[in-house]
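We emphasize that the prediction below concerns an isolated chain of 271 residues; any contacts that depend on oligomerization or on bound cofactors are therefore not represented. The input was used exactly as deposited, without trimming of termini.
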Amino acid sequence: MKNLKRICLAITKNKVFEIVIVAVIILNSILIGVETYNSSEIVRLIQRINLGVFTIEIILRFIASGSIRRFIKDGWNVFDLSLVLIGYIPETLIPNASMMMGIRILRVFRVLRLLRAAKELKIIITVLIRSFSAMFYNVILFIVFIYLYAIIGVGLFKLPNPEKLTAEEKVRYEMFVNEAPTAVAPDPFGTLGEAMFTLFRELTGDAWTDIRYNHVKASECGLLKVNTAVINIYHISWEVLAAFLLLNLVTGAILSNYQSVRENKDADRTL
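Result of the prediction step, given as a token string:
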């Protein structure tokens, strides 16, 4: 048994074996894309061969680990085993279409096996996992601010209901709709949920100036009771706070953990 373990360990650590597995993963990933256009019998046959190769790989890694506990201790092994087992589920046994679609979607995750192929990518994944705790509190802070700004935005920029406007107000409303930028909805701050989505959209830099121009135009048409200065302060302060401060906190947490992981890896190599 020890000899078998030693042989399997030597095979899994062999560069040629790793290159072959990477090549099969790449081929499998390409065929997953091909299947979205045309799933021929040849493609399905090659995919079954790929699944057989992945099965042999899992068996070799399991024997090389020496025990179930050591095998499942590596999260990548559990991930690979799950994808292999999903591949053996016959679609004829799936009771309904929605479940079949779910199985197919899970099989698509085999593309993520490419992340295991490069050591640098594995380091990045490790960094992201370690950064989750720090990013969790950053997300809480972000939610607090986006909720606060959304409430303020609804109070300042919610447009009146067109059905309740007078004839003169409807004329001004139609003027606003016709002249305002068309890249955004007429009332991006109509509800709290829509306001939070709008603020998230502004965070990405997508047409946030058009939203600002919309509010300026609505103010000029007498639909909003705020002046241009308040509109500018609101949107610019949100961009500065969200895009430059909150996102930099997340970036800082990731970079800090990246440096820590790299130092640990370098220390392990020197031992």
